[in-house]
Fold this protein.
Amino acid sequence: MERGEKQTQMSHLHGHGIAAPPILLAIGGFDPSCGAGVAADLKTFAAHGCYGIAAITSLTVQNTQGVEAVHHTPSAELREQLEVLTKDSEIAAVKIGMLGNRANAVVVGEFLDAHTFAHVVHDPVIRSSSDAELLDTTGVKYLATELLKRSSVITPNVPEAEALTGIAIKDLSAMEAAARKLVEMGAKAVIVKGGHMERAIDLVFDGKDVHALSGDKVKMENTHGTGCTFASAIAAHLAVGRSLVEAATLAKAYVVKAIEKAYPVGRGRVPLDHFYRMKIEPLARGTHELTQHGLHPAAEPAAH
Ligand code: PLP
């Protein structure tokens, strides 16, 4: 039976008339403090109305103060995780983050070769802000020579773009040179993130045109998981058909707001508030609860 046929039959059996939103696959590390990694990815997907599934490349020992250790998933297990998900769900986009080591990077490369995905957003994580190694040296080499060709877009920050290209980046023109070099190396599109620069300009290069996305640098420096969140928001926007520049613009606006609304969770760096749009405000006077429809102001006639 063809995959599509099987899926239709399954939804016929189990469906109850509610169409599923885009299903997005996150491949990355797990940060138990849930500010970065796949936890940030899944929260971002949910905040954008998508359903997230995930395969874990590494289990980190981490709190908001830093990464203490990393334990990589054995590559055969990572392969199984990816296959069991792929044979079950129609995946609208894939987001890749921390890969840990070369063996798991190769599993992801082979996985991308074995399946066709409409959108693959790869945040080429190499080190954490607390300077823990999140991809080993041979893994970085595989990423640069093999993996970046297999993504729709890669989203390095300045240190990652420097590590991948060997270009020292001090200004916007060097960011552009690095983006062009990454495309020469095989990337289809590149977003060099300017969060580490004085002015937080992100540079989008789709292989043809360069777009600079300017943005005010948010005051709070001490944030955690911004890169994961940005790439995941891009994946969500691409999955619903937006263009790369539109996706990057909206993702940047989301990250800025989620930083502005961030609150401390531990004693260290501050995770973003992925759900700032969903804050429950104190009840307005006269509000009552209709159990079947959620909360509605009593003064307003029901819209349905
Ligand atoms: N832990 C995991 C699992 C990650 O994927 C990342 C970044 O991608 C980090 C930690 C580091 O995040 P940050 O540099 O924001 O501390």
About this structure: Residues 20-278 form a domain with the UDP-N-acetylmuramoyl-L-alanine:D-glutamate ligase fold (CATH 3.40.1190.20).
